[in-house]
Write a structure and sequence with these properties.
This protein is 0% helix and 51% strand. With 458 residues, it is mainly β. The structure holds beta-D-fructofuranose. Beta-D-fructofuranose binds next to strand 1, strand 5, strand 9, strand 13 and strand 17. Its EC number is 3.2.1.26.
C-alpha cells in the first residue's frame, strides 16, 4: 500500500475522494450559512467496501465547492443505525441543518428478498452550526411503511413546498417492482404516507436514492432503478441512474414520462441534487458502481471511488443539461490552443479540454493516454478502454445525431465528458499505465498524451 499520497499519481486533483478507505453515494448536500457541505457514504478502514465495518457518513465542508476540507465523521452509528448510517439528504430550515437518512439494521437468520432480514429506520439529526450534530430522532420505522413494500425502503430526500414538507423514499415492492414513496409533514417530525409513485409496468425491482426537484421548466423524479434489462446503448451498467420528467404534480395526479439516463459512462450512480444560495440546482454523483464485479486498482493503495464535480442543471427542449459548475473554470491555467488534428501533452495528467464542432463534426476521435478512445462514428459516440473497467466491459456509447461541442475534464484517474452542453455525459474512472494481466501496477506517468483526429473541430 502506498503510504505517502503524493506518491500516488491516481489521487485526484479536483474531485472529492475519501481521505482513505471507501466512498459511495453523496449525501446531505447543502449550503448552510454560506458554507457548502458534502457528506458521503464512507468506510474509512475498508477500501474494498465489504460489510466488515458499518457505513458511516464522511463530511467535507468549504466556502467553495472547489476547495473543501475534510471534517471527519459527523456522527457514529448507534442503536437506530447499528449496521450503517445509510444514504440521505439535508434540509436547511429554521436556521438549522437537518439531516435525514436511513438507519440500517441487519437481523440475524436467513431470509428471502421479501422478508429480507433488515429494518430501515428513517432518522433525523439536527445541527445548529454545521459542525456538531445532535441526538438521532426516529421518524419512521419498518412498520410505518406500506404493507406492499419489502424490507428495502431507504434513502429519504426531503423538501419544502408551499409551507409543507415532503419526503420521497426509494422502495422495492413485494411484487418485484421499484417505486418511490411520498410522505408529507407539517412539522418535520410526524410523517404521513401520501402515495406511491411507480410505472404501470415494472421498471426495475428497486428504486434507490430518489430525488424530486425542478430544473429549468421540468419537474424531475430522479431514481436509481435496479434490475433493468440491458438494451443497445442503454442500461449497460449493472444498475442505472436516471430521471423521469413528471407531468403534473407528484403529490396528486401525475404521469412519469420518458426515463433518461443521467450518464452513459462506466462509473456513475446515486446522484443527489440541492439548490445553493445562488439558486442553482446542483447535482453531484458517485463516480462508482455498487456490486460492479470489478475492483478499482486504487484499492491496493488504500482508497476507492470519488464523486463527480458539481454540475449545474438546466433544461432545454424537455431535456436536462448538466454542466460542470462555472467556478471550475477558475482552476484553468496554462491555456493551450488545440490543433484539431494534432496532439499535446498534459503535463500533470489533468486538464479541461473544450472543442467546438464545425460542419465536419460527425466523424472524429480523441485518444487519451494509452488505452482510452472517444470516437464519434456513423451516428454513435463511443468511449472505449483497452482495459475493461465497467462490469468486465470495455465500451459504452450512445446514439448521437449531431455533435456540437465536447468538454472533457481529465483528472489523473477520472474522465468526465460533456457533449452538446451537457445533454450527454460520460463519467468513468481510468488508470493510465495500469498493466492488467500481470497483477502489477506500473508507476504511472503524470504526463498524458492527448491525440486529436477531429477535422472540422476547433
Ligand atoms: C446506493 C445505496 C443506497 C444505500 C447506500 C448504502 O448506492 O445502496 O441505497 O442507502 O448505498 O451505502
Amino acid at each position: 500500500m502506498v503510504k505517502e499520497w503524493q506518491d500516488d499519481g491516481w489521487r485526484l486533483k479536483f474531485h472529492l475522494m475519501p481521505p482513505a478507505g471507501w466512498l459511495n453515494d453523496p449525501n446531505g448536500l447543502c449550503q448552510f450559512r454560506g458554507e457548502y457541505h458534502v457528506f458521503f457514504q464512507y468506510q474509512p478502514e475498508d477500501a474494498g467496501g465489504g460489510g466488515k465495518t458499518p457505513k458511516v457518513w464522511g463530511h467535507y465542508a468549504g466556502n467553495s465547492l472547489l476547495h473543501m476540507r475534510f471534517e471527519g465523521i459527523p456522527f457514529q452509528t448507534g442503536r437506530l443505525d447499528r449496521n450503517g448510517s445509510y444514504s440521505g439528504c439535508a434540509l436547511i430550515e429554521n436556521d438549522e441543518m437537518q439531516l435525514y437518512y436511513t438507519g440500517n439494521i441487519r437481523l440475524p437468520g436467513d431470509y428471502d428478498y421479501i422478508h429480507d432480514g433488515r429494518e430501515s429506520n428513517t432518522i433525523r439529526v439536527v445541527s445548529r452550526d454545521g459542525a456538531h450534530f445532535g441526538k438521532k430522532e426516529l421518524l419512521l420505522k419498518t412498520a410505518d411503511y406500506p404493507a406492499e413494500c419489502t424490507r428495502h425502503v431507504r434513502d429519504p430526500k426531503v423538501w419544502k413546498e408551499n409551507g409543507r414538507y415532503y419526503m420521497v423514499l426509494g422502495a422495492r415492492l413485494k411484487g418485484g417492482q421499484g417505486a418511490a414513496l411520498v410522505y408529507d409533514s407539517c412539522d418535520l417530525k410526524k410523517w404521513k404516507f401520501l402515495k406511491k409513485i411507480t410505472t404501470p409496468e415494472a421498471f426495475g425491482y428497486m428504486w434507490e436514492c430518489p430525488d424530486y426537484f425542478t430544473a429549468g421548466e421540468e419537474n424531475i423524479l430522479s431514481v436509481c432503478p435496479q434490475g433493468l434489462e440491458e438494451e443497445e446503448w442503454q442500461y449497460q451498467n449493472i444498475y442505472q441512474a436516471g430521471y423521469f420528467t413528471v407531468k403534473g404534480d407528484i403529490r396528486e395526479e401525475q404521469r412519469l414520462e420518458v426515463f433518461t439516463e443521467w450518464d452513459k459512462g462506466f462509473d456513475f450512480y446515486a446522484p443527489q441534487t440541492f439548490r445553493d444560495e445562488a439558486g442553482r440546482r446542483i447535482l453531484i454523483g458517485w463516480a462508482g458502481m455498487p456490486d460492479a464485479g470489478y475492483e478499482n486498482p486504487t484499492v491496493t493503495r488504500g482508497w476507492q471511488h470519488a464523486l463527480t464535480v458539481p454540475r449545474a442543471l438546466s433544461s432545454r427542449n424537455g431535456k436536462i443539461l448538466q454542466q460542470p459548475m462555472e467556478e471550475l473554470k477558475t482552476l484553468r491555467y496554462g491555456k493551450q490552443e488545440i490543433d484539431p488534428t494534432g496532439s499535446f501533452l498534459l503535463e500533470d495528467g489533468s486538464g479541461d479540454v473544450e472543442l467546438q464542432a464545425g460542419d465536419g463534426g460527425r466523424e472524429w476521435q480523441i485518444l487519451i493516454g494509452n488505452g482510452c478512445a472517444l470516437t464519434c462514428h456513423k451516428g454513435v459516440l463511443q468511449l472505449e478502454f483497452s482495459q475493461g473497467w465497467g462490469y468486465g466491459r470495455k465500451i459504452r456509447g450512445t446514439r448521437l445525431e449531431e455533435c456540437r461541442n465536447v468538454r472533457i475534464l481529465i483528472d489523473t484517474s477520472m474522465l468526465e465528458i460533456y457533449v452538446n452542453d451537457g445533454e450527454i455525459v460520460f463519467t468513468s474512472r481510468f488508470y493510465p499505465e495500469f498493466a492488467s494481466g500481470t497483477g502489477t501496477v506500473k508507476p504511472e506517468t503524470r504526463t498524458l498524451l492527448l491525440e486529436f483526429n477531429c477535422p472540422g473541430m476547433i
